[in-house]
Design a protein that fits this description.
Elements lengths: L3 E5 L6 H9 L7 E5 L13 E5 L3 E13 L5 E5 L4 E7 L6 E4 L20 H9 L4
InterPro entries: UCP032025 (IPR008320)
Pfam families: DUF1489
Protein name: Lysophospholipase
Length: 133
């Protein structure tokens, strides 16, 4: 079972904005995020995904293609340039990235399926402030 990671969709104004950013990298075959440190468990992440947090909820995932060191010592997280929608799941915000086990990851939405009764973002924010989500 692959290991996944979670990360906030920083500066994305909406899930559609995140999707557009990822897809804009399709011509080079991958989108890249920069991180200071290489995950210690990167070998377990082969076949895993980066799950995106938007407004205190996991909303989608991008398959991880690998990791590549930059000239300045930082690392690129190499991602497939697509956003695969998942069943929305509450997730508290955090800095950087965190590991996510396969059994804790939300399932992908099927063809024509919608997120359904997803919690409204404002409610998720209030519950997160109270430490309930």
């Amino acid at each position: 079972m692959p290991l996944h990671m979670t990360k906030i969709a920083f500066s994305a104004e909406s899930p559609a904005d995140l999707r557009a950013w990822l897809e804009s990298h399709g011509d080079i075959g991958e989108a890249r995020l920069t991180t200071r440190y290489l995950p210690k468990r990167q070998e377990e992440m082969v076949g895993g995904s980066l799950y995106w947090i938007y407004e205190h909820a996991l909303i989608g995932r991008s398959p991880i293609l690998g990791f590549e060191q930059r000239d300045d010592g930082r690392w690129h997280i190499r991602l497939a340039p697509r956003l695969i929608s998942v069943v929305t799941q509450p997730k508290r915000a955090h800095q950087g990235w965190r590991y996510l086990a396969e059994q804790d990851a939300p399932r992908d939405l099927g063809e024509g399926e919608t997120a359904g009764d997803a919690m409204p973002p404002a409610m998720a924010r209030e519950l997160a402030k109270l430490g309930l989500v």
